[in-house]
# Entry
Amino acid sequence: MAATALKAAASQGTGTTAGAPALLVEGLHAGYGKVQIVHGVSLTAERGQVVVVLGPNGSGKSTFVKAVYGLADQFAGSVKHFGEEISRTAPEVLARRGIGYVPQRDNVFVTLTVQENLDVGLAPVPRAERRERLERVFELFPLLYERRKQPAGTLSGGERQMLAMARALLPQPSVLLLDEPTAALASKVTAHLFQIVRSIADSGVAVVLVEQNARQALQICDWAYVLINGQVAFEGKGRDIAGNQEVVRQVLGEAR
Ligand SMILES: Nc1ncnc2c1ncn2[C@@H]1O[C@H](COP(=O)(O)OP(=O)(O)OP(=O)(O)O)[C@@H](O)[C@H]1O
Ligand SMILES: [Mg+2]
# Structure
């Protein structure tokens, strides 16, 4: 897998702070309406890193990434992109800034073909650059090239995740939020997807990866956060988290 398949990404925008992380979340409190789910979560993701968010079902992982992407309510705290405040910013504005998001569910248009799904990701890309961008994602996901004329609804679970990821990569995001891309996939497919995630980060993207396949995710990550009841209960390097008996007892033992 060519780490260079995707040129490191998107402009950092104006008004950014030199040396500031691609994504810096500080003390985020978030939820839905009056219901608070996330209680003061802080997270940092630098370009070139895979940062994993683990935790039991219902611990607030999806709510956390949704809040970062402006899809859940932010009650307090801050979210910064290269030092620039982006709290409570609409998803379409964040997308234009170079933040990509692949939701946990319903992340492809099943009645559209693979190519038509990719065309959605190409929409914001200047016409002259579209072919090259497409070639790069086909390099990363050769299967999608073979399946480009098929409706996305006919793809396997793993192929759908690849399509959703490919579409999110086309605008060349600097930050990519992935919510459980390997849920319900066979472990061999999961391993393959994780290799791709690693290569996406290596090409210069800051990847935030929400996962239930904790053991495998911990092997490819640079840093891991464990959410329990909407709070960071543990954080550390992958191997330290994997070796932490308390985490193993509370979280890894429960992984699907
Ligand atoms: N739209 C919503 N409105 C109100 N509560 C919600 C909404 N979406 C999720 N919740 C609640 O927020 C809590 C956390 O859910 P969330 O989906 O963030 O957990 P998760 O860690 O992603 O779980 P999983 O591993 O199952 O995906 C749950 O109690 C859930 O019922
Ligand atoms: Mg979730």
